[in-house]
Amino acid sequence: HGDGFKLWGEYTSAMQDLIKFFRDLNHYTVIFTALEECIEDKDTGNLSYFPSIGGRKVKEAVLPAFDLVSRLVLDKDNNRLLICKPTTKTQAKDRVGVLEATELPNLAAIMKKMEG
Questions:
Q1: Reduced to 3 DSSP states, what percent helix, strand and coil does the chain have, rounded to the nearest 5?
Q2: Taking the model in full, what pTM does it have?
């Protein structure tokens, strides 16, 4: 078990370093996509969606590291939307503060809004 814990710690550290590396790139716009997983809060029963990345510490490091974190969903009419503000189910944020709660998934339009 000792080797497993050591390897898990090394993985967590390497992933956190990778997130910080991309966060700290100057003069670049970096866009990631990730599969998602649904996590149920054992105390409240609420469901939350996170990037499907191994390790809770790594999942929790994503949201504070980046200026925009959004989730692609289908609305009731099967239109694609990006959720850009947090909801009870979605970890999302718009640090610049110029996006609506939902936006069309047009990255050029979103970048134009964010660049002001």
A1: 35, 20, 45
A2: 0.78
